[in-house]
Amino acid sequence: MKIGLIGAGRLGICLALLLERAGYEVLVSDIRSSYVTDLQNKVISTNEPYVEDLLSCSKNLNATTDNLKVIQECDIIYTLVATPSNEDGSYNVDSVWKVVEDFKKLRCDRKSLVVGCTTNPGDCDEFQKSLSDYGVDVYYNPEFIAQGSIIKDLKSADMVLIGGEGKHRSELENIYYNIQGPKKQPYIHFMSTKAAELTKIAVNCYLTTKISYANMIGEVMTLSNMSDEIDIVLQSIGSDSRIGNKYLNYGFGFGGPCFPRDNRAFSSYAESVGVEFNIGRTTDNFNEHHAEFLKNYYIKKNPDKSVPFLFRYISYKNGSDILTESQQFRLCKDLLTAGYTVYIKDIPDVISQVSSSLYDEFYDKVIFVDDNTETPSGIIVIDLL
């Protein structure tokens, strides 16, 4: 069986490489012609672990800029194109519709379109309606991954959602067993596409709520002069099997390219069906408040600006090069704006993204360092998770 993939970005190329490694012949397409050339030459550069090694030893992965070639030659076609957020928090699925229109340019009997990018509940039903006369089955099959550990997360997924009915449903199930190997047996849940779309954003909404809950506990304890016991209190709460310790740490609010957007998308959908007061919106508002709380906390800790601050990283996640909605970077800029000197240590790909703009705005108040740099005595290290 030949598998296609339209949209070979960070997640797409990882999935494609694991499919190839599992024994499938894979053809990917992407709009970036230079990137496609690099894929063909097996020379892409990325901070995502294992990708370069898997690409260099791949034998049955090819790339093109032609979506129609992928659709024509493959039996199952995944799409992982970008779905940016609209102003109301919902997802803009115009790029997916372009893929749907590409399918309609061909007679695609016995083809399956697997939507892996995040969409709004009900979108895949509309894709299916549009393709019902063209011999195409539409599935929704999102991935639960974190940037910086995509390969690892795909190979060890706890849960797999497969939304939709059709001729390739059992093969989609087999794909996960082939990717993960015989030792890992993920929980695979079959449901309607709309239910799967809702489940995807609802899962992340729950995680953002848990993060916000832990941060709320931390704020209460800080204001109660018990900040030295925040960790033990949260560990105690998490030891209850009904709660668990994952995502139950005091620190920065949630950020990155997934959690904030999924949280807002869930809120937007809930409001669209009449649930005006929903946890997602409250969590998003608290996350905004918590950023202000941390700024005020550190300003109060160093009111006369006598010592600088040190950030060990400013990306949304240590080791990542992604600054999207990074709460660490937000605090860094807040402290610089307040007139503090800030030392920043991070990977080169992060420094290259921010150095010019920070120098232009804050001049000598921002200092980039590495492990060999000597920092001033008494420097305040921002050591939150």
Q: Any chance you could write out the topology, listing elements then pairs?
A:
Layout: E1 2-6, H1 10-21, E2 25-29, H2 33-41, H3 51-56, E3 61-64, H4 67-73, E4 76-79, H5 94-104, E5 111-115, H6 123-131, E6 136-140, H7 150-155, E7 159-163, H8 169-180, E8 187-191, H9 193-223, H10 230-238, H11 259-272, H12 279-301, E9 309-311, H13 327-337, E10 342-344, H14 348-362, E11 366-368, E12 380-382
Parallel strand pairs: 1-2, 1-4, 2-3, 4-5, 5-6, 7-8, 9-10, 9-12, 10-11
Helix pairs in contact: 9-11, 9-12, 11-12, 12-13
Q: Can you describe this structure in just a few lines?
A:
With 385 residues, the chain is α/β, with parallel strands linked by helices. It has helices spanning 10-21, 33-41, 51-56, 67-73, 94-104, 123-131, 150-155, 169-180, 193-223, 230-238, 259-272, 279-301, 327-337, 348-362; strands spanning 2-6, 25-29, 61-64, 76-79, 111-115, 136-140, 159-163, 187-191, 309-311, 342-344, 366-368, 380-382.
Brief descriptors of the model:
385 residues, alpha/beta, Rossmann fold, N-(1-d-carboxylethyl)-l-norvaline Dehydrogenase, domain 2, 3 domains, 4-stranded parallel beta sheet
Describe this structure in words.
The protein has 385 residues and is an alpha/beta fold. It folds into 3 domains: 190 residues, Rossmann fold (3-Layer(aba) Sandwich); 95 residues, Orthogonal Bundle (N-(1-d-carboxylethyl)-l-norvaline Dehydrogenase, domain 2); 84 residues, no CATH class. 45% of the residues lie in helices and 13% in strands. It is built from 14 helices and 12 strands. The strands form 3 sheets. Strands 3-2-1-4-5-6 form a 6-stranded parallel β-sheet, sandwiched between helices. A 4-stranded parallel β-sheet has the order 11-10-9-12, with helices on one face. A two-stranded parallel ribbon has the order 7-8. Helix 14 links the parallel strand 10 and strand 11. Helix 9 crosses helix 11 and helix 12 crosses helix 13. It is globular. The chain starts with a strand and ends with a strand.
